[in-house]
Automatic annotation (TrEMBL):
One of its GO terms (molecular function) is metal ion binding. This is Coenzyme A biosynthesis bifunctional protein CoaBC. HAMAP family: CoaBC (MF_02225). Binds 1 FMN per subunit. Pfam families: DFP, Flavoprotein.
Length: 408
């Protein structure tokens, strides 16, 4: 992508019922200044007609290799694009792309593209989980394509399950992030990363809990940027009210022990684990079966017991060779001093240390931090959007994933 032209996007539309949602994605792309050429498959035009795509994009719709032959569309579209975004990507379209077929204009474009390529799958759950589809997805990811995880929810007819196309606003956010990174987008392609986000809650009674002020914004930014860099992302989310990042698999939890169980399970085949969640250090020894009432006097003391140290456990018992473990430390004073001590105690590869309180970090759209490493690394990340900090963290993780012969 250069400064001389508006970002050029090829929007490939597959033949699925979710094609109607892509009209909204197209509108968001064009209204934000992108030049979009829509390339629908023959079956996609059964759901949304050519005049609709032309009216919304303001450009002629490319439908087959025999149209405007003198412009060589089957080569030019891919060569000149800054991004190829395919949605909905049906099981058939994923199969044809994985096998390098070129039987229509869209698959020809995929073969000639030298820019980031994103697939947003949409299909019934059984089709998504079929070994053939899983194999095709793995092949595409191994080649550097970004294949998003589909959402869960209502499918065609009365069916529900995994396979739903993420909402257009979420897809637009992926496209925006991918275009912002350009050719560096897929440096996490083929990797599985686990991110924890939010703040755990420890029940006192059926109504009250011990918690913290974390909103999950930084963890969600880490998940979204990892998706845009090609990773398969598992997001363990503790009490977060944010919309799920498109392409990430979200596993909701409540307490520290639930978070531990979910993170350890997801980490079994993960290349990297980033513990951005604010995990409670303690929990009540007992949980009242009924709401605790006022007695008119001093309340009974609450006995606390220590929660498991998830970050230390992940660092000590690596699930696989070369796994990178990243921790977060939210401090209110003596930030670097406490951060270095925590890094030593936890044994992780990187520790992201940031100051919290007085309107900083929790609940704000921006953040600043210092990333520490056991080798004396100290990378300052100035205050800016949380997605910028997330990208810098993934830069450091990608460097360590790329180190030959990493071992514990």
């Amino acid at each position: 992508m250069t400064a001389q032209h508006a970002p050029r996007v090829v929007l490939g539309v597959g033949g699925g019922i979710a094609a109607y949602k892509i009209c909204e994605l197209l509108r968001r792309l064009t209204e934000s200044g992108h030049s979009v050429r829509v390339v629908p498959t023959r079956d996609a035009l059964r759901f949304v007609g050519e005049p609709t795509w032309a009216a919304l994009s303001g450009q002629p719709v490319a439908t087959d290799v025999w149209q405007s032959v003198h412009e060589v569309p089957h080569v030019r579209l891919g060569q000149e694009a800054d991004l190829v975004f395919v949605a909905p990507a049906t099981a058939d379209l994923l199969a044809r792309a994985a096998h390098g077929l070129a039987d229509d204009l869209l698959t020809n474009t995929l073969l000639t593209a030298r820019c980031p390529v994103v697939f947003a799958p949409a299909m019934h759950t059984e089709m998504w989980e079929h070994p053939a589809t899983r194999h095709n997805v793995a092949v595409l990811r191994s080649r550097g394509a970004i294949v998003l995880e589909p959402a869960s929810g209502r499918l065609t007819g009365a069916d529900t399950g995994k396979g739903r196309l993420p909402e257009p606003a979420e897809l637009f956010d992926v496209a925006r992030r991918v275009l912002a990174r350009g050719s560096l987008t897929a440096d996490l392609a083929g990797r599985h990363v686990v991110v924890s986000a939010g703040g755990t809650r420890e029940a006192l009674d059926p109504v009250r809990f011990l918690g913290n002020r974390s909103t999950g914004m930084q963890g969600y930014a880490l998940a979204a940027t990892a998706v845009a860099r090609g990773a398969r992302v598992t997001l363990v989310s503790a009490n977060v009210s944010l919309p799920a990042p498109a392409g990430a698999e979200v596993r909701p939890v409540t307490s520290a022990r639930e978070l531990r169980e979910a993170v350890l399970a997801a980490a079994a085949d993960a290349d990297a684990v980033v513990m951005a969640a604010a995990v409670a250090d303690f929990r009540p020894d007992t949980v009242a079966a009924e709401k605790i009432k006022k007695t008119g006097g001093r309340p009974a003391p609450i006995t606390l017991v220590e929660n498991p140290d998830i970050l230390a456990e992940l660092s000590r018992d690596r699930a696989r060779e070369g796994q990178v473990v990243v921790g977060f430390a939210a401090e209110t004073d003596h930030v670097l001093e406490h951060g270095r001590d925590k890094l030593r105690r936890k044994g992780c590869d990187l520790l992201v240390v940031n100051q919290v309180g007085d309107g900083m970090a929790f609940g704000t759209p921006d953040n600043q931090a210092v990333v520490l490493g056991p080798d004396g690394l100290a990378v300052e990340i100035p205050r800016g959007p949380k997605e910028d900090l997330a990208d810098r963290v993934w830069d450091l993780v990608a460097e360590r994933l790329g180190e030959p012969g990493r071992h514990r």
